[in-house]
Design brief:
There is one protein chain. Helix content is 26%, strand content 18%. The chain is α+β, with helices and mostly antiparallel strands and 317 residues long. The chain has a domain at 13-23 and 47-56 and 106-301: C8orf32 fold. The strands form 2 sheets. Strands 1, 2, 3, 6, 7, 8, 9, 10 and 11 form a 9-stranded antiparallel sheet that branches. Strands 4-5 form a two-stranded parallel sheet. α3 packs parallel to α9.
Length: 317
């Protein structure tokens, strides 16, 4: 997809909302943003762009906080106030998962209901949950079940590393047009495994599926759609939130990185379970042209294994 600078002369928040296809939807006041602290006592920097679209004038803003998490896998429980107060010695990292902190890659995030692109995500997330042992996922590709079985016996960081590199090798990068005959198609895990191919969001979807079965709570993981400002195309990755920050599983690298180590990634929107967020940038960096609405963003399209080193892990990061 061609990425351009924002068109000059556009001003006003109404024009911005028209550009990203959100005018007429519930506004931030009805978006159920749960701030982690009293906004009156916290100075929050205003983002200069929202979802890759420049904001031309200041607006009242509140940070989006992590929503509360219920029952989770005991081995990877959420990091609460007690864990924060009992800081471990320097050099020791307990790596506890936590509820999603949506401000991944240093962004400001706004929780949204009735998000237009959620229509893509809802059936995919249901299929992720339904990808249980003995299901179509395992029948379509028995190697996937073996990856899950091995990962479930590993520690947290080893689990992330193993799933990331194994899924990168299990399927081949192909565009949605090549596999499904359409510009952008969000495939279910069983479809990706059947075709043994997919684009960047398909890699992230399959990694989320594997980690969920290997014991990582669903509410600790999010699929993040972003602009890669260095390679100049839209992309998608899997983010895993922990007490030690967010870890990024990427189809372009076998190395699991912290989000803070990937400054070229500008998040646009993200999904976790049934939640959706739009991300705003705090910097004045180049922004993506999404004037046609988020439905026009096709992660991975316009890239190829030759351009982006593919899932072999040999890219230059």
């Amino acid at each position: 997809m061609k990425i351009q600078k924002a068109a000059p002369g556009v001003s006003g928040i109404k024009a911005v909302l028209l550009a990203i296809g959100l005018l007429g939807l519930p506004q931030p006041s009805s978006a159920a943003v749960a701030g982690p602290c009293d906004p009156a006592s916290t100075a929050v920097p205003l983002p200069v762009s929202l979802g890759g679209v420049s904001l031309s004038r200041p607006q009242p803003w509140q940070p989006a906080g992590a929503y509360e998490i219920g029952a989770v896998v005991p081995a990877y429980g959420p990091a609460g106030a007690d864990a924060a107060s009992a800081a471990p010695p320097v050099g020791i990292d307990p790596i506890e998962t936590s509820a999603i902190v949506p401000g991944v890659f240093g962004s400001v995030a706004l929780s949204m209901h009735n998000f237009p692109v959620s229509a893509r995500w809802a059936p995919v997330y249901k299929a992720i949950v339904d990808c249980t042992p003995g299901s179509a996922c395992d029948r379509k590709n028995p190697a996937f079940a073996e990856i899950v079985d091995i990962a479930s016996k590993k520690g947290f960081r080893e689990k992330l590393d193993f799933v990331n590199s194994s899924i990168n090798r299990l399927i081949t990068y192909k565009s949605d047009m090549a596999v499904y005959g359409v510009l952008d198609y969000w495939a279910k895990p069983s479809e990706v495994l059947e075709h043994r191919a997919g684009d960047c969001e398909d890699f992230a979807i399959l990694k989320m599926t594997a980690l969920l079965r290997a014991g990582i709570p669903a509410r600790s993981m999010s699929l993040v759609v972003l602009q890669d400002r260095r390679r100049k195309f839209f992309h998608a990755v899997l983010s895993v939130s922990t007490a030690s920050g967010a870890f990024i599983l990427d189809s372009l690298s076998n190395v699991v990185s912290r989000d803070s180590d990937l400054p070229d990634y500008l998040p646009l929107y993200s999904f976790s379970t049934d939640r959706a967020w739009i991300h705003g940038s705090k910097s004045g960096a180049q922004i993506a042209n999404v004037a046609g609405g988020f439905s026009t963003v096709a992660p991975g399209e316009g890239s190829s294994p030759d351009q982006a080193a593919g899932p072999s892990g040999s890219d230059s990061k």
